[in-house]
Amino acid sequence: MIVRNYLNAEYTYGSSHKGNGQVKNVKLFENADFDSALRFFYYTEIPPQASIGYHRHGQDEEIYVIMEGRGRMTVNGEVREVGPGDVLLNKPGWSHGLENHTDAPLRILVFEAALPEGD
After folding, report:
1. 22 assigned to some structural domain
2. 22, 23, 38, 103: which one has the fewest Cβ atoms less than 10 Å from its Cβ?
3. Total number of domains constituting the chain
4. Rounded to whole angstroms, what are the CA distances from 83 to 23, 49, 80, 111, 116?
């Protein structure tokens, strides 16, 4: 059994994909931890008025799980208000970013999986 606790983890702070402000992250699992196509699993806090910059991935899929707070998710130019319980899928080649436009932290889980070889 492998257990990691994001509440007790050592965080890093920095810009995420050239977004605004400093985002708080902990990489709970990385590629080497998985026996599958999963690449990483992050717990992330986006402070008020900060963002994950608008960016594009190549051959992978990424899921954002909104746990607490509210924000604006942009996917391929379409903007949507998101909040607790929302789960967003970013398909290969899609552009996306997440902005916390509120006065409260936005807490999310993010994980990414690679496409199988040959796809």
Report:
1. yes
2. 103
3. 1
4. 18, 15, 10, 18, 31
